[in-house]
Amino acid sequence: MKRDELRKLKDKTVPELQKDLTAAREELRVLKFDLTAGKAKNIRTITETKKRIARIMTFLRQAQDGERSRTIIAEKSKTNNNG
C-alpha cells in the first residue's frame, strides 16, 4: 500500500472508514467465491484485500479511541471547572 493511500485512510472519518471496511469485506467475499469456483487468476489479491481490511480496522479503532479520549478529557475539564 502506498503512502498516499495510507494518508487518505488516516484523513477519513469514522463513517467513511466503516463504508470502506464494508466494501473491502464484500470484495474479499467475492474473491474467495471466485477462487473456489476456479475463476481467480491472481491469489495475491486475496492477501492484499485482507491486509487492506486490517489497515482499515486499525485506522477505525484509532479514530474511535481518539474520539473517546477527547470526550473523556472534555468531561474531566467540565468537572474540574465546576468544583
UniProtKB/TrEMBL annotation:
Q: Name one GO biological process term.
A: translation
Which Pfam families does the entry mention? Ribosomal_L29
Single GO MF descriptor: structural constituent of ribosome
Q: Which UniProt keywords apply?
A: Ribonucleoprotein, Ribosomal protein
Under the heading InterPro entries, the entry gives: Ribosomal_uL29, Ribosomal_uL29_sf
Q: Does the keyword Ribonucleoprotein apply?
A: yes
| Cellular component, GO annotation | ribonucleoprotein complex; ribosome
The answer to keyword Ribosomal protein applying to this record is yes
Indicate the family of this protein.
Belongs to the universal ribosomal protein uL29 family.
Name the NCBIfam families for this protein.
Answer: L29
The protein's name in its UniProt record: Large ribosomal subunit protein uL29
Q: Which organism is it from?
A: Candidatus Colwellbacteria bacterium CG_4_9_14_0_2_um_filter_50_12
